[in-house]
Write a structure and sequence with these properties.
This is Kynurenine formamidase. Its EC number is 3.5.1.9. The protein is mostly beta strands and 209 residues long. It contains three helices and 13 strands, in the order ββββββαββαβαββββ. It has a nine-stranded mixed beta sheet, with no helix packed on it. It has a two-stranded antiparallel ribbon with strand order 2-3. A two-stranded parallel sheet has the order 6-8. It starts with a strand and ends with a strand. The structure holds (2S)-2-amino-4-(2-aminophenyl)-4-oxobutanoic acid and zinc ion (2 copies).
Length: 209
């Protein structure tokens, strides 16, 4: 069955959230002079690239990445194309028939994912859309944007609708080549203690016919 890799490349020059330190990938030990191995090290903001927010990101007593149940991050999901949305994905932008009964919904907002430059004007998700998804039984909401809320948000309203249903979030997905439809999602957060987010290797797999 076909696999779509919907993850960004983690690299030193990747765009990160304004004010965050850059990603660094170092080589601490090199093969040669009696040393049999190369050994590297990575230093990256937890929200860099394709990642899963933990509840700790938007709730002071929220669960950290290491403490999140894995079930929301594996299973059937519906990918919806909302490239027609403006500043936010609003109720009228969503094909509610397509997401009916879905446990996981991921939104495509970009024609082409901006891999080279930071996009401050990304398409957010309106809080009432998240609330409607929660009421419909959705456990996980994903997006190719770097956040559910606008970059300048001080209230994180969409994140708080997620919190109200203890739902999970994927951000920074790369959905350019994936047709709308139903897939198997696999995108497991790393078991990082006290972390408010974790990088994930997100994939979509075709469902068995
Ligand atoms: N680094 C930040 C600093 C301040 C506010 C937000 C961020 C984010 O990274 C956004 C995050 N991806 C989010 O889950 O909305
Ligand atoms: Zn995030
Ligand atoms: Zn977020």
């Amino acid at each position: 069955m076909r696999i779509w890799d919907i993850s960004q490349v983690v690299r030193p020059d990747m765009p990160v959230w304004p004010g965050e330190p850059p990603v660094r990938v170092m080589r601490n030990v090199e093969i040669g002079d009696g040393c049999p191995v190369n050994v590297g090290e990575i230093d990256a903001p937890l929200h860099a690239g394709t990642h899963a927010d933990a509840p700790l990101h938007y709730a002071p007593d929220g669960a950290a990445s290491a403490d999140c149940d894995l079930a929301p991050y594996i299973g059937r999901c519906v990918l919806v194309d909302v490239r027609h949305a403006a500043a936010r994905v609003e109720m009228g932008d969503v094909d509610w028939d397509a997401v009916a009964g879905a446990e996981r919904v991921i939104f495509r907002t970009y024609d082409r994912f901006p891999a080279e430059v930071w996009d401050s004007d990304f398409t957010a998700i309106a809080p009432d859309v998240v609330a409607r998804l929660r009421e419909g039984g959705v456990r996980l909401v994903g997006t190719d944007a770097p956040s559910l809320d606008p970059e300048t948000s001080k209230t994180m309203d969409a994140h708080h609708e997620i919190l109200a249903g203890d739902m999970r979030i994927l951000e920074g997905l790369v959905l350019d080549d994936v047709p709308p439809g139903e897939y198997e999602l696999i995108a497991l957060p790393l078991k990082i203690a006290a972390a408010d987010a974790s990088p994930v290797r997100a994939i979509l797999r075709e469902l068995a016919k």
